[in-house]
Amino acid sequence: MRIAVCVKQVPDSWAEKKMVNGLLDREGVDAVLNDLDEYAVEEALRIVEAHGGNEEGGANSVTIVSMGPERATEAIRKALSMGANDAILVSDAALAGSDALATSKVLAEVIKNGGFDLVICGTESTDARMSVVPAMLAQRLGWAQLTFASMVSVDPAANTVSITRTTEAGVDAINAKLPAVVSVVEKINEPRYPSFKGIMSAKKKTIDSRDLAAVGVSAESAWSLVADFAPRPPRAAGVKVTDEGNGGNDLVKFLAEKKFI
Amino acid sequence: MSQIFILADFAGDKCTKTTAELATVASRNGSVTAIVLAAPGAALAASVNHGPIANVLVVESADFATFGVAAAADAIAQIIAQKSPSALLIASHAYGKEVAGRVAVATDSGIITDAVDVAADLTATQLVFGGSTTVHSKVSKGVAIITVRPNSVEADLSDSSPAVENLALTISDSAKLATTTSSTPPVKGGRPELTEAQVVVSGGRGTNGDFAAVEGFADSLGAAVGASRAATDAGWYPHSHQVGQTGKTVSPQLYVACGISGAIQHRAGMQTSKTIAVVNKDPEAPIFDLADFGVVGDLFAVLPQATQGVTAQKS
Ligand SMILES: Cc1cc2nc3c(=O)[nH]c(=O)nc-3n(C[C@H](O)[C@H](O)[C@H](O)COP(=O)(O)OP(=O)(O)OC[C@H]3O[C@@H](n4cnc5c(N)ncnc54)[C@H](O)[C@@H]3O)c2cc1C
Ligand SMILES: Nc1ncnc2c1ncn2[C@@H]1O[C@H](COP(=O)(O)O)[C@@H](O)[C@H]1O
User: Which residue among B98, B184, B303 sits closest to A147, beta carbon to beta carbon?
Assistant: First the structure.
């Protein structure tokens, strides 16, 4: 079983974000591994561990695939230190400001040529928050889409994958033949902390850096364009009262003034 | 006049208010056709009768239930190829965004997600970085595919009697790779749907597992009940009620956070609410930064008194 895990490096969600020339400023802020992608790495490791592990040279492997600036290697090292085998990073100046369509195109090309059986993604990048890259990947690859999984099980003998899909529309059981694209929700597992040994060995693992020419896709003009952006006026400072026996009534008065009652 | 398509939104077999919201913004651009994807014999089209909808296009197939997102996207891409609309608007939830994403790939069109408004020229408005920044953008290739957040615009709910057309399509084999073997719809309570509600009252770890005070206050206001992840993880409230980054995004007229500290992941799901009220016993809780009105106090004292006050004012 060869698994690709798509991870993205994102600005730290606690950092203040701002726009520069219509794009998110990614230079001026700390960057981290998208926390929802840690669940994807963890799930991939659990799948290979349930089927004999991912020793070098064995039948199973977990490859981290990412598109982003060169400094995304920091986020990739974290995924490698959890126990993934190796990584592919696509970096190219022409990709700056890519949206989900461009991202999925590049990722699909890398995955198609990588000999993978299964792709696992997070459900959402904390910066783009689109939740569409996994579905787009499935469409581009022509592979089965099993997204928003709160449970995944793989049967290598039958060459199948089954998930429990959990969304606001309810809970579905879905299965498919491999190859397939899976995305996992954060309730699926508890990601491991990298061990000291994991951190040391991650330093020696291979990150295969490629530009667009090496991937074999050409840069495309954007599918959508930002016309303008502006900070919204900050929320006006509110009123804060301390309950000394009348807090509930104060709240009612506020709600009545605002015509909520 | 240009033709603009929307994907009619359903909860079970009931057409949602979101459908009328999509129609309302779409009608600024052109004549609105609502696509209805239905199981064979399901009489869904008849309930698509609110909002400025001129036409309803019905595709019936058992494949929509079995093959989910992929089958829906395949059908819509075929419809777009046949009818060349100017744009396609879909509700911004997990299913809607995934369908939109696949249609964008299939038709080589641009996509904008989580719009809170769409102008007549199809310029979409998004609120990013937790609502701190407004972005206007436009699709520049193919059909403009835009997902619109429920509850963001005032819906024109006037009655309509659209012309209904049935369209026969064959779902492509490439959309039949993942099979749904069972489906459990979410349990519906008597309260309004979280993402559609005008008022949401949410409880967190501060409830200590007892949601009675939160529910009582919600009911006095006719509100939906939400919860923080601390509350859903503890099993105090169903996961389907979780508000936040990994739960639902809500944008009601009024959001009342009770016993919730205001972690960034929770804020991500509620900070575009029009008015925010807070009840928390810790005056330093970060949630107060968002509050239009905050009460520093014990929710078990404040909420029952407020419930009584609202009930008294209403009668
Ligand atoms: C990947 C990831 C995704 C996440 N997604 C979400 C998400 O979607 N939604 C979400 O909510 N969280 C999410 N979280 C969790 C988030 O970080 C917080 O842990 C969570 O929101 C805390 O919930 P809380 O505010 O109820 O609890 P706490 O932070 O423990 O706060 C409880 C508050 O209650 C107050 N309180 C206690 N007793 C009373 C009382 N009697 N009366 C009044 N006030 C009282 C306290 O002063 C405190 O401020 C996510 C975390 C991660 C890592
Ligand atoms: N640049 C990227 N590189 C690798 N994986 C990505 C990238 N962008 C998105 N993904 C994957 O797609 C998922 C959903 O992201 P998004 O659609 O941007 O919200 C993420 O959790 C990642 O697994």
Answer: B98
CA-to-CA distance for B211 and B208, rounded, in angstroms? 8
What is the reported pTM?
0.90
From B185's Cα to the closest Cα of chain A, the distance in A is: 4
| Sheet of strand B124-128: strand arrangement | A224-231, B133-139, B124-128, B111-118, B144-148, B87-91, B3-7, B31-38, B55-60, B163-166
What would the pLDDT profile of B50-71 be if each residue is shown by its tens digit? 999 999 999 999 999 999 999 9
Angstroms from A201 CA to nearest CA on chain B: 32
pLDDT in tens, B115-151: 999 999 999 999 887 777 899 999 999 999 999 999 8
Cα–Cα distances in Å, from B141 out to A221, B109, B122, B238?
9, 5, 13, 41
Q: Which regions of chain B does DSSP assign to beta strands (E)? A: 3-7, 10-11, 14-15, 31-38, 55-60, 87-91, 111-118, 124-128, 133-139, 144-148, 163-166, 178-184, 199-203, 224-227, 254-258, 275-280, 293-296
Substitution candidate for ligand 2 out of A34, A116, A147 with most atoms within 8 A of CB: A34
Reduced to 3 states (helix: H, G, I; strand: E, B; else coil), residue B104 is helix
Give the Cα separation of B35 and B6 in Å (integer). 6
What's the Cα-to-Cα distance from A117 to each of A3, A89, B175, B236, rounded to whole Å? Answer: 6, 19, 18, 39
Point out which residues pair with A183 in neighbouring strands: A121
Which amino acid is it at A93? A
Q: Which positions of chain A have pLDDT values less than 70?
A: 13-29
